[in-house]
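Model it.
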Amino acid sequence: MRKLIEFDDDTFDKLKQLGRDRMATLQELADEAFADLLKKHGIPIDLKDALRKSARLQEAAGRQDTTKARPATPKGARKQGRKR
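Modeled.
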């Protein structure tokens, strides 16, 4: 899919120079930048990334379920038991 993005001349010159320095195309620089932006906002980039995120969420939910299963200790109950 093709989309147009407009840059001011100074920014475009700097991007071209960065591409030359890193031996990368402008497309590769754009792909990296957009992937970083999606990652920053927690949006999976590809299927593999989505599956990892889903597994982490399920694991975290499983840990929360085990902590909720513990009986609650009333506040101060431990301190009172130690004074004896």
